[in-house]
Write a structure and sequence with these properties.
7 strands, Immunoglobulin-like, about 55% strand
């Protein structure tokens, strides 16, 4: 699928839950920032997310390891 066909070329983020109940929320871009999607992960589960035309930010609640192309960070510690 090409970019003309709507393929997304955003950066990826990998989130690994370090405890049960980690919540990941995708936040919209534009004039009003809103939550448009959320997922709940239990310990050991991994989610690969991508920034897109719709997703400007990702909020993570709980203990998780986050990997990006610029480094690693741990939330909730």
């Amino acid at each position: 699928m090409s970019e003309e066909d709507g393929a997304s070329t955003g950066r990826y983020v990998v989130v690994k839950a370090l405890e049960d109940g980690v919540v990941i929320m995708g936040l919209t871009r534009g004039k009003d920032t809103r939550s448009h999607h959320s997922e709940r992960l239990d310990a050991g589960e991994v989610m690969v997310a991508q920034f897109t035309e719709l997703t400007a930010a990702i909020k993570i609640r709980g203990r998780a390891e986050i990997l990006t192309d610029v480094g690693r960070v741990e939330s909730g510690s």
